[in-house]
Write a structure and sequence with these properties.
Layout lengths: L2 E5 L2 E5 L2 H8 L12 E7 L15 E7 L4 H13 L9 E8 L4 E7 L5 H15 L8
Antiparallel strand pairs: 1-2, 1-3, 3-5, 4-6, 5-6
Helix pairs in contact: 2-3
Length: about 140
């Protein structure tokens, strides 16, 4: 899968696992940030805004996370995207993790909001992916 990793102004074109890890390993882990920030991982050519032509008819599935689980959840979701675990092809546009002061918010963006089969699949895989046991090192 050809995706673009965006963190503030950092952009890495990812075409191989090695280039992904090179980019990913230099990012601040979500829970280690002292400021609110947003992580984006989107397919190449898709801008993470609703005005993008590919996103206009799309939707998103959002879950609010309690503090302390963002690191593990984000890594699990990123691995699911890179590994095509969602198995919905180009219907998956990208994922967003917003780190806020009171809570963290994970969103999975899809291309076609009316595609109920894709939405169910995204929801199912998202729930499986984020169900992690909370540990003190997160």
């Amino acid at each position: 899968m050809n995706v673009v990793c965006v963190l503030c102004v950092v952009r890495c074109a990812l075409q191989q696992v090695e280039s992904f890890w090179h980019c990913y390993s230099h990012l601040v882990r979500p829970a280690d940030s002292s400021v609110a920030l947003t992580y984006h991982l989107f397919r190449s050519g898709i801008v993470p805004v609703w005005e993008d032509a590919i996103n206009r008819s799309g939707g998103k599935w959002t879950i609010r996370l309690k503090k302390g689980v963002a690191n593990r959840v984000w890594e699990n979701v990123v691995m699911a995207v890179i590994g095509d675990r969602f198995a919905v092809g180009d219907e998956l546009c990208g994922v967003v993790l917003a780190i806020k002061f009171g809570e963290d918010v994970l969103s999975v963006w899809n291309k076609t909001a009316s595609n109920k089969i894709v939405i169910r699949r995204i929801r199912y895989v998202s729930v499986l992916t984020i169900c992690v046991k909370h540990t003190s090192d997160d």
